[in-house]
Every structure is written in structure tokens, then in C-alpha cells.
Amino acid sequence: MPSKEIITEWFKSLQDSICKELELEDGSGKFEEDKWTREEGGGGRTRILQNGAVIEKGGVNFSAVHGEAPDFITKENPVSKKEKFTFYAAGVSIVIHPVNPMVPIIHMNVRYFEMSNGVWWFGGGIDLTPHYADEEDAVFFHTSLKTACGKHNSSFYPDFKKWADDYFFITHRKETRGIGGIFFDKLTRSPAHNKQQLFSFIQEIGSSFAPVYTALMNKNKNKSYTEENKKWQLLRRGRYVEFNLVYDKGTKFGLETNGRIESILMSLPQTAGWQYNYLPLPNSPEEKTLSLLKKGINWV
Amino acid sequence: MPSKEIITEWFKSLQDSICKELELEDGSGKFEEDKWTREEGGGGRTRILQNGAVIEKGGVNFSAVHGEAPDFITKENPVSKKEKFTFYAAGVSIVIHPVNPMVPIIHMNVRYFEMSNGVWWFGGGIDLTPHYADEEDAVFFHTSLKTACGKHNSSFYPDFKKWADDYFFITHRKETRGIGGIFFDKLTRSPAHNKQQLFSFIQEIGSSFAPVYTALMNKNKNKSYTEENKKWQLLRRGRYVEFNLVYDKGTKFGLETNGRIESILMSLPQTAGWQYNYLPLPNSPEEKTLSLLKKGINWV
Would you say the ipTM is above 0.90? Predict the structure, then answer.
């Protein structure tokens, strides 16, 4: 069964390979690395690319932190004795905000978590947030995820796709963050899968990121766009900010475990905007996009 | 003792007079009004000014909502019986984001709250968020508040100034939102003040908004600024967004009571920005501003 050391090393290698692939497709931007340590234990390698040709602001972060389990974890996992848990959490987190509004925003996270009481799980997700919904891209994205999931368990894609619809949801706006993807948490040993098998699944998802997103970059990066398209991009980024600051559990976890703020908030775009009561024109691409930001669309 | 009807009417008249004064000082922008009703009871008058000469985006909102008390209020006010509270909440909320980075952002809220069990209180606050800290402006602002508070209780200014330092604090950044002001909540009958006296205090604070802020607009609105100043303004606005979405209790209350989203989030600026690990140049005005974003500065 894979140890936390083996899993952690693999996460590092995933960060390396994704950064290389993204730089290659960007053609100009370079990731800059900040190594950091966390006072209570552990640290990370934050890699940020700013002002590339395709990527305006992107982060591909690795971290592995440990220490006493924060209150909200202890609360979710009550123990009879007044035992003090320690935890270990490692993973890779990615958010890419492109320059061109025709290139979608993407997010991926793959993570491993274990506690001193023997409890462990994998979690993660990948979701796409187009500024302008493109049905061909959405079908390609979801088909790629379905294929990757299907190699491991035929119920993973439908189950985790629904989970993503529910998770990446801006409740106060009654709209999804984007066109969804997959989301899963607390995957642990079951009759269906042992730890090695779940780790293989995580590796499959992690490894699918670069080919899927560089294909979407490549297809859309040279499309022309207008000032109006850029304004709309700002508003969509505003919604992204709302989701991440109000709902995102990874952000919450980072803030509650005294994480490195600049690494956690790398998910926020270089610019974003809010306009009071913006209503898209009837039959516009903006209106079409909004109509697709809902749960339960079957893209495959 | 003033009834909720009298208090509510006064809030409406405050909204009217502040909008007039701001339009006068802006010289070009006009507030547009949206009246709205809340399904569960009550409603409001949202007034937004966008793309004025001085005000880029500003909201001066009145609302008066009522209904069954939401869970988090019932939790804070437990009752022995399984009584179902109703509540009534009215107030005026203001956030102004100016065009010119030399003009500070301002926020004010004055509110009245009562429940069917006879509990009532006033709350509110006013705080200033300069993009570039100007000591003269800060002294003027705090002196005005101290004077207004001092007409009612000599401990109000020191107490509520400290409360503002603690409240308008971006914990994860370890910095205050701006140069503070005053904040107070749950002001109710005490040996020192009856309801009429507290209402007079609220009126004093509310009425001080327009003269104080139009003076700051007037003094700073014609100052010249550079592209670099505008970039810094974006970053400061980003911090404003972080505070409002992560910490602000008014925003939380609005979201939890199914408030009108566009009215609640009028506090967010037309544009904002985030840059990874931005560090101001040594001895720059930006660095000086950051050095003043801390608790406990005695401006008066």
C-alpha cells in the first residue's frame, strides 16, 4: 500500500510535469517558485506564472503540511478519549486564469489526508469555468474525465460529476461556477477499492490535467476577442472570486490551518469586476453562457 | 420612545439626503433606484451610482425586512420554550468606491433590529479605507467621529474606535481594512441611555456621513494620479473584496436571510485585482499606507 511519502513524491512529480507542459503551451511565461515552510509543520512549493502569452495568472502549487488537527477536523471526527489528533495533508492545487476570454479558467486539486488515528482519504476535483461556454469544449472536457474515471470504476464519473455540480455552486447566485467536472472527497478503503487502487485513480486524474487543458489552450488561444468580451471576462472572474472566498473548502482549510496566504489566494485572478445588476442582452453569447451554468447538464 | 416606524422613516430620509449630497459633490453621476420586496417580508430601496465623475461605483441602500428569525439569531438568543421569533431589521448601508485613488473608499451602516420577544438594539459603523493613507484626512475623519460621539457619551468614541479596529480586520492578512473609524452593535437600553437617546446617537452618526465624506471627496477629487496609482487601487480594492466576502457580518446576514444579492454585493468594486506576493517599494507611499493598516493607531 502506498505510504504518505510515496504519495507525496508523486504529487511533486505531478507539479513538475504540469508546469513544464503549461510553459510549453504558453510559449512565453515561466513559473516562478517560492518554497515556504509552515511554522506548525510542513511547507510547500508555490509556482506562479504571471503575464504569460496565454496564461495571465496561474498557480500550480504543491504542499505537504502536518501538525495538530484543527478544531473543525476534530469536530467532524469525534473521539471518545481526549486524544489530540495529528494530521498530514499533501496535494497539488491548480488554478489558471487565461488572458484570452475564449480560453476557459480551469481548476484542479488532488490531495491526500491522513490522521494519527489511522483514518486516511483521497480527495480532489477538476472543473472548467469558461467565460464563454463552448459546447464542443464542454463535451471534450467531460468525455476526457469520463474516460479517465471509467478506467477505475464505472460509477465514478456519474457520481463525481453530480458531486461537482453540487460543490461548485454559487448558492447566493443560484448558478454553478462553470460547466462542472468532477469532485470527490474522503475516498477511502472499501470493498471496491484498496488504497493502491484509489491512488492509481488519483494519478489518472492528475495526469489527465495537462493534456486536457493544453488542448483547450491550443484550440482557443488565438481566437480574436473584443473589449466587450474582456468586460464580460471580468464579471465572470468576479463570480470566481465569490465562490472561492465564500464557499471553497480548500480556501477555508488553508485559512484555518494558518496556511500561506499568498499560496492559497493564488486562485484569485489578476483583475476581476462587479457591475450592479448586469443583465446580458437577449440571445447574446453571454446569455447563452449563463443558461448553461446550472446543475445536471449531461455533456457526454 | 421611538417606534420601529419612526426609526424606519428616519432611515429613509437619511438615504434621501445622503444621495442628494453625494450627487451634488460628484457633479455628474446620478443614483438609480431599484425598489425590491423580499418574499419572506419587507424589502428595500437600492440606490446605485455608477460611472460618476468622482464616484466609480457607490451604493446607498435602505432596507427594512422582517420575518421568522433565521437560525443563527435564534441560536444567539436561546429561549426556554420552542417559541418561534420574528424579527424586524431596518437600516441604511453605504459603500462608495471612487474613481480617483487619492479619494478614499468609505463605508457606513446604521441599523435597528428588534424581535418579537421585546429585545431590540441599534448597530452601525463608519470606516474609511484610503488607497493612499493621508494623515491629514485620517485626523479629520477621526476627529469628526469623536466629536459626533462625544455629544452623546464620552466613552463612545474610544470604545467604538477600538471595536472598529477589531471588526474591520482582515485576519488572514493581519492588516486592518483601512484606517478604521467606529463600530458598535447591540446598543440597547442601559442605565446610561434610553431608546430615544440611542436613536439620537444613531441620527448623529448618520447625519455626519455626508458632510464628512463630501469634504474628503472635495479635497482629493482633482488630485492627479498615475497608472501605478490605479494599479495599487486595484490591489487595495481586492483586499476590500476579501474582507467583505470572508468576514463582513452584514454580508453574511444578507446571504443567510435570503437578501437581495445585487443590493448586498453593491459593496464590491467595479474592478479589483490580485497580484501574487506584491511587495511595495521601500519608502514608497504604498509601503507607508501598509504601515498604517494596523490596530491601535491614535489619530486624534
Answer: yes
For residue A57, list chain B residues with Cβ-Cβ distance below 8 A.
274, 276
> How much is the pLDDT for B78?
60
pLDDT digits (tens, 9 = 90+) for B173-218: 999 999 999 999 999 999 999 999 999 999 999 999 999 999 999 9
| Grid cell listed for B249 | 457580518
**Contact yes or no for B229/B102 (Cβ under 8 A):** yes
Higher pLDDT, A132 or B84: A132
- CA separation (Å) from B276 to A26, A47, A264, B142? 19, 10, 10, 33
B298 inside domain: no
* A269: chain B residues, CB-CB within 8 Å: 273-274
pTM comes to: 0.95
* pLDDT > 90? residue A107: yes
Asked if residue A49 is part of any domain, the answer here is yes
Q: Is A30 a domain residue? A: yes
Query: Which of B49, B48, B50, B44 has its CA nearest to residue B62?
Result: B44
A/B interface, count of CB pairs below 8 Å: 73
DSSP classification of residue A104: P
Residue A254 lies in a domain: yes
With H, G, I as helix, E, B as strand and everything else as coil, classify residue A238: helix
CATH code at B248? 3.40.1500.10
**Cβ B241–A241 below 8 Å, yes or no?**
yes
Write out the residue range of the structural domain in which residue B129 sits. 4-291
Q: Out of A34, A234, A269, whose CB is closest to B274?
A: A269
Q: How many structural domains is chain A composed of? A: 1
B238 contacts A57? CB cut-off 8 A: no
Q: Percentage of chain B surpassing pLDDT 90?
A: 88
Closest chain B C-alpha to A213 CA, distance in angstroms: 22
